[in-house]
Each structure stands twice: as C-alpha cells, then as structure tokens.
Write a structure and sequence with these properties.
single chain; 312 residues; mainly alpha; MetI-like fold; 15 helices; flat
Amino acid sequence: MLSNQQTSSQQSSPAGEAISQNARPAPRPQDMRLYQRGRLYQRLSMVITYIILIIAAFIVLLPFAWLLSASLKNTAQYYASPIQWIPNPFVWSNYVEAFVVYGFAQYIGNSLFLAVYAMIVNTIVSSLVAFGFARFRFPGRTFWFVLMLSTLMLPAQSLTIPLYITFKNFGWIDTFLPIMVPQLFGSAFNIFLFRQFFMDLPRELDEAARLDGCSNLRIWWNIILPQSRPVIIVVAIFTFLSSWRDAWNPLIYLSSQSNRTIPLGLLYFSNGYTTVYPQMMAATVVALVVPVILYAIGQRYIDSGVAIAEIK
C-alpha cells in the first residue's frame, strides 16, 4: 500500500512540476503601466532623434543645394532677391564656359596628377617608416616616434619662409617639385596610422617569413602590406583628398596659369573688377565630384579605419 502511494506520488510529481512551471503569475496592472510608459518614452526618444538628425542633415545639405542651384543660374538670377532656388531657365552653359573660357580642365589635370602622385608615394613611404617603428626595436625608438608626432603640432605656415627660400635656391619655384618632393618623406599622421595597425599584427608572421629566408623589405612588401588593406585604403584616400583640396602650397609656389590646381584656379574666376560667380559655382560642383565618388567607394574602409588610431 505504501509502495503504491510512493509510486503514484512519483508518477504525479512530474506532472505537478510541469503545472507549476507553466503556471505564471498574471502581470500586475502597475507593471503593465510601467512597461507601456517605457515603450512610449522609447518611441518618443526615437522620434526626437530622427527630427534632430533631419534638421542637422538639412543644415549640412543646404549650402550644397545652393551651390548646385547657383551653378545653373545666370548673373541676374544669381543676384536676385529673394533667392531663386530653382533656376528658370537652367543655364548649362556655365559648365561649358568654366572649361572652355577659363581653362578649368587644365586645373583638374594638374590637381589629379599631384593627388595621384601624393597618394602613391606618401602611402608607400609612410608604410615603410611605420614598419620600422612597429616591427623593430632600436635605441630611442619611442623618442624618435614622439618627436615625429610632435611635428603635427607645428603649423605648416611657420615653415613657409625657410622652405620657400630653399626651393628658390634650387630653382624649383613655379614648378611642381616643391609640392612633390616633400611627399617622399611621408606624413607624420599617416605613419602614426600605419604603425598603430602594424602593431596589432602578430609577430609570428615576421618570424615565419624569416625562417623562409625573407628579408625585411620582403616581409614588409609581401607579408605586412597584404594584411593591411583597410589602413592602406584609408591612408590613400585621406592623402588624395588632402592634396586635392590643398590651396596653400600651390598659392605659394605656383604662379603660371598652366600650373594652377583646382583651389588656386577657383581664385582666378575674377578679372580684378568682377567675379563670374555662376561659372565659379559650376567649377566648384565639378571639383566636388571626385571626393564624393572616392568617399562612396571607400566608405566602408573609412568607417572602419576611423578606429585605427585607437588600436593599442
């Protein structure tokens, strides 16, 4: 009898446990109100966030909308008050005049040449210098690296006079050499980015390559660089855009019309008395096409490369 009761209790216990597990207390009205209030606050915060982002995007895009509108106006429409946002008619000849009358195609060619040269040379040299700082141990390594970084705090304008005198003694004024030669020494910021990325790569790669008979240059070229595609793309894009929008160095060292770059050429859409703003706006729109395309292509690498400086 006792054994039957124990057996029946053992058989009924799993069912009782299942019933106790499935039986959940009903939510209290106070808890439901708190949950609904939290959901309401979450939706309101999301709506407010989107409103702020839309307003910020409108503020950022408004000058570009005005730029595009001004590039398609004639002079009377450009100076009209209030502002006429939609030109009537569209003056597409402003773009033609920017290239034919003011020789903007030559400026684009010069800027493209200097930017591509700087992108290739500066990226290669900076990666090589960063390879030495990241993969070798030598006396004073930290001191020299910090000294190199300190040059970032030195204004470029403070070096203008001594560099101009030096380049003038070399006979390089009004040539591309004062802009091209400094690229052979790399960039402190680019070296910093490369070094931070290289230090995160395992040193076992270097050791395995040395066992296979690779020299240091081969390790840098065949082992390290193929593993560093994200930082290479980021540095290349940053260097290209820096050279593309550089107005200071061309203004100091270049004087002839055939050597003008885009930022310098935009200053000459004036004859000393009047400025042809519609044609200048058209040329500016064309100058913005290349940076926009570059960012669209390398956006994924740029977003991931923003955190490179935080590695180690």
